[in-house]
Specification:
The protein is mostly helical. The chain contains eight helices and two strands.
């Protein structure tokens, strides 16, 4: 049995449900949806990052205490402390500020989403009970951004960094 793809191309919206769906939802640009997705993923990480610092480049004592005394990686039934907790705290706290800013502006977007996906994986190992309410949606958003890119409303698109040609002014 072969499928004739040419006939489906000639009649793209022969199905009344497809025509109705396009009429109902076709006005929402994908670039707007991707912008909202980027901002939605960036927000909780950025807000968390703001609580980690006491001024410029000064990690809070609470953050140092959390990484050295409370946070543990739950791996194979074991609770393993973070190695070099102050270094890990500094790196994670910096990433919680920098990566969401990159996402918000759509600059190096796929890499920022990958970084937040990796952070989400480590957070999942630290708080395994939070997978359903927090970690799963964060991972899903990061994967969607990695798959679909930043969209047209981004510095990546403006600078031609994401594979799509930059927009040009009409002649």
């Amino acid at each position: 049995m072969s499928i004739d793809y040419a006939s489906s191309v000639e009649r793209p919206f022969a199905n009344p449900i497809a025509r109705f769906t396009l009429a109902l939802f076709g006005f929402v640009p994908a670039s707007l949806a991707l912008l909202v997705l980027r901002l939605t993923l960036a927000m909780p990480f950025y807000k968390s990052g703001l609580t980690r610092w006491d001024g410029w480049f000064n990690l809070s004592l609470g953050t140092k205490a959390l990484f050295s005394d409370e946070y543990r990686l739950h791996v194979f039934g074991q609770e393993i402390p973070f190695p070099q907790p102050e270094l890990v705290a500094t790196m994670a706290s910096t990433a919680e500020i920098v990566l969401p800013i990159l996402l918000a502006f759509g600059f190096l977007t796929r890499y920022a989403a990958l970084g937040l996906l990796c952070m989400t994986a480590v957070i999942q190992l630290t708080y395994p009970e939070g997978w359903q309410n927090f970690h799963l949606p964060w991972a899903t958003m990061a994967l969607a951004i990695m798959a679909f890119g930043p969209g047209a409303i981004s510095l990546d698109r403006l600078l031609g960094l994401d594979g799509a040609p930059p927009r040009r002014a009409p002649a």
